[in-house]
Design a protein that fits this description.
The structure is a homotetramer. The first copy, chain A, is α/β, with parallel strands linked by helices. Helix content of chain A is about 35%, strand content about 20%. Chain A contains eleven helices and 14 strands. In chain A, helix 3 crosses helix 4, helix 3 runs parallel beside helix 11 and helix 6 packs across helix 7.
Chain lengths: ~350, ~350, ~350, ~350
């Protein structure tokens, strides 16, 4: 950690700071600059609060050198982590996974029908929302437990593992019993109590990036889960909020190489929520694969115009199959299977 | 609602759309433009999902005319709502309230000491975090119930009502019993299950704006609470996330007149979290009052350099008193008391 | 154009508005909604100023239906435009072009050396900055005319057409004489006088997206050039500014399918400026090709650690060759040559 | 400057780096951390390019300690600079200035009429656009020289100094002859050639903040002007671009105390362009004064509904007078005149 101190700081203040750091077992180097003095601190600075140090009126700036995450940090865990979701392996050089399914679960028959369609198209897993985070309280809020059970039935028929979003810790038992991959949605990325709760169970977690969260905060959210014991975290980029109006969000594909550089965990891409527009899904899916993503999660609906939510961003099964077809060819170019 | 349809749409598609809208009891007007056709829909369109309509490949754009919120909408509730927090009235032309206290509760004695200091300075209420939403799992997570009880004790001694953040519905009973104003933090602004939970109790709620949420989404979060029955919502702006690096967040004071135009609810300003820098608190507090805010919530600590969190943004009690002194004079200029 | 008017508007105001619109030859349809009245205007509304209409205190909202651009609009020009740069064709189904070269021109020998290296690697054109837009007045500002002439010499030796940034209209003659593709940089995307100036010459223009400009504003910048007569505009995405700190900017690849849907012009991607990090160039380049981009512009330097600017984002020639090698394979998957 | 180097860096690389820095006369301190090594550099690092250092694959991070600006830096110029605009003093503890006038100059009579109205209301200077930066080439582009002369005539009649935007260096002579305060617009904040041009003349410059520029970049734009010789720079905040849709831009009032802390130059606020909505002007103007701004620049039009541009954000003269009346009272509270 580097601490920049104003030249006008009295010696007595500087001594007090140094003593405080040394008491914590940190080794202090003082560099006298022309306009500022600078402390370099060596040792475990994770327990130091930047903002408390900055409260000292003589402190100009505090800069962290070491990343604030440990368990997710590739520095301390150089090999890729491969996450196992009901027998499907995600990450490293494993096959790129494709997850397809409706935004909202709308009934047992409809779910089974889409499950079969996405399976035929080549999907590895089924997605579907039973509990829906909707901006409006007047919009459809999801079928709840009934929706989860419809997915369980579809899994029984098709063999596809199921992914669904958990919105509240009080449904965690239900998800542990029925769901194969527990999704934490973008709006709950910093719902720390929910992160701690899924950190205590032994199910893989799909952690979506918040709409305006930095990559570092996203990794810290994974760190919350991992620090409670659950190491099975998969990142999912779904677009960030910018000033652009032609897309719902701005898909940030540079996260793919960055997450792989900074952490040892897999990352998949959700082009449906990122763009909000089915016409953009194919190109963004192929781009994600070319960028090195470990998987895709795409909304598919037999009849998007009648979907109960987010129809505009859903692909019909035939187009979904086309995306997978082209995706496989791109995967081969970069040395992956799909 | 206005729906823009491509010129190439076949008549049969247009008829199908019209029949669909009419079945819902909507009145349809069709305008033939040069490059597009446009439908105007009159009636209750709140149940229509924009994204489902946009899934139709002939639909170019969907524009809502009516605001999606009802209970918070000033159009249907022209008078200002005055929220009563343990006898203190907030909103309308009531006295501008000042809430002060530490970021984190650090012990019973420390809390009492700060409570007395903020009371002496002229504060109306005491704030303090017992459950802390921290970016890092390795940072201090708050004293929990013990912290809440420390605030209760401080209230007993000083008479100041208390405000604290609720992070999880499973602590709601504790908050209903002990806390006077339940804060929903920025990171939980779209934790819809938590919003529904506080919507079912009869305590006022301080609803912070999410770091990257639009004003409309913020009002919709209030609508979640209000649609469950609890009409006692106070908005709190605490800065939004932008590209700027000299401040922690960008304080958006234009929300004050906008919230007052669009809704009938009160709004207060948190300059501490918005700026992250105690040197900016005074000027932003005075600006907030001049802009018409109904209150301020400011972090105060006897010894910011030793605070367990966010020391850099905490005022010492004397500076806090100075802010109140100047604030009162500004309040008078715009015809308010403080 | 759709104009939403408050219910409380007196009939006389409504009549005045209608007369104003009819005087301009617009056809007006009035829809009576429950909470608002809505005017639909048909005809040429390009001359109407939204903000002037919004100045009427009874007007709640103004919504444009038709896009504000004409010459760039694919609606009126359905075929892809192919832009010819010194014999190299860009756009449509033409070969994907690769432009490589140093951030700053540093001398005749250095330029020739890099030109030969990028040519050997497979590049189609040479880029290089002779006039440099630097944040600091104390940073190297470019070699100016001498730099342009160094590129001209490199073109003579290698046959590669040259691309360089024009920062000021007073150098336009020099660029028309010597440069094959005139770049307008991100910071000048809304320097309207410069846009008009390059609109009057007959050289192709590479128009970079501004750091915080919407796609619509970007197309309007092209429209400035085209409305002066020069139809040879190529868009270039180079990342937009967001809150993220691990990358210099956020590369927005969804612009590729959007620009192709809304306009008939080509689009190329600059992964170097977007990311600011050479480690991310390869994955973002391959993603751009998979997304359908018409070309890449990449910074290449023989010795990035000694570059006079932006070394961190420059590839060495061998890595550049590797990007082209993999890029060709991805291009084939989507049916393009490179 | 602090340079973080990976532990795996070979000794030979470290020696090479140290030698490079020492050759530049910098004093190097090396701190061995647990996971990284850190160099502290003391001396004049302004000539070092961060990005070139970062090009070294063993370098993890480069952090500047000293601000990159010198002439604008309060550290080297502790007293407030007072800028004289045709006899009106701006900055320090001088009277808060009020600048009013139309967005676009529309004719000599109209200009004179508004000039008299703003003077009566209490304005100190007249603003007006003769050259207009419009998003669309089909929108009114300003009256040009004729507009400038209309303002000159209004100055003759009213005595109010005049402010107008310069869009291109080729009109600089005209502005030097006729205009009292030369405005550089937000879209040209990083048009470095234009900045250098106005840096060479002896007229005060009103430098608007770019729509997505950091405060540091803004100060660096001032530094461009000052490094050419012209020290008479006044900052003007006019809102930044965010995701919010209810306002045109987000007014960032925290810039007021920050600009005053970091620099010795004055800062004024433009609430008209920031909000785009006349209903928000009064509250944002009063907030700006309370925050400590040195002035306001506000759009005023006799008949906003007939303005040729930006009517929605223009105040009528009576409301403008009301803003000044209340503003004076707020100014007194913070010890300023207005």
């Amino acid at each position: 950690m580097i601490i920049t101190v104003k030249k006008e700081a009295p010696q007595q203040e500087i001594d007090k700071l140094i003593q405080g750091f040394e008491k914590r077992g940190l080794q202090v180097t003082l560099i006298h600059g022309d306009n500022y003095n600078v402390f370099g601190l060596v040792g475990d600075t994770a327990g130091l609060d930047d903002k408390t140090i900055r409260a000292n009126p003589f402190v100009e700036e505090v800069t962290r050198i070491a990343a604030p995450y440990k368990k997710a940090n590739r520095l301390f865990h150089p090999q890729d982590s491969i996450i196992d979701v009901a027998g499907i392996k995600i990450g490293g050089n494993e096959k790129i996974v494709v997850i397809g399914g409706p935004c909202s679960i709308e009934g047992a028959n409809e779910t089974l029908e889409i499950a079969e369609a996405v399976k035929d198209a080549g999907a590895d897993m089924l997605r579907g929302g039973a509990y829906k985070p909707r901006t409006s309280p007047y919009a459809f809020q999801g079928m709840g437990t009934e929706g989860v059970l419809a997915m369980v039935e579809a899994r029984k028929q098709t063999g596809l593992p199921i992914v669904s979003e958990l919105m509240s810790a009080d449904k965690l038992d239900e998800f542990v019993e029925y769901v194969d991959l527990i999704q934490i949605g973008a709006r709950n990325m910093q719902n720390f109590d929910l992160l701690k709760a899924v950190g205590k169970v032994n199910k893989p977690v799909l952690l979506k990036r918040g709409l305006a969260n930095t990559i570092e905060e996203w990794i810290m959210a994974a760190e919350y889960i991992m620090s409670e014991g659950n190491q099975n975290v998969i990142f999912c980029e779904r677009g960030i909020r910018t000033f652009e109006k032609y897309t719902r969000n701005t898909l940030d594909l540079s996260v793919v190489p960055i997450i792989k550089e900074k952490t040892h965990l897999p990352i998949i891409i959700d082009p449906s929520h990122a763009t909000g527009d089915w016409k953009l899904i194919e190109s963004m899916s192929l781009a994600a694969i070319a960028a090195g993503a470990d998987g895709l999660i795409i909304e598919v609906h037999n009849n998007p115009e009648c979907a109960w939510s987010d129809g505009a961003q859903s692909l019909k099964p035939e187009r979904f199959a086309e995306v997978i077809r082209k995706g496989k060819a791109i995967a081969q170019v970069i040395g992956r299977d799909m």
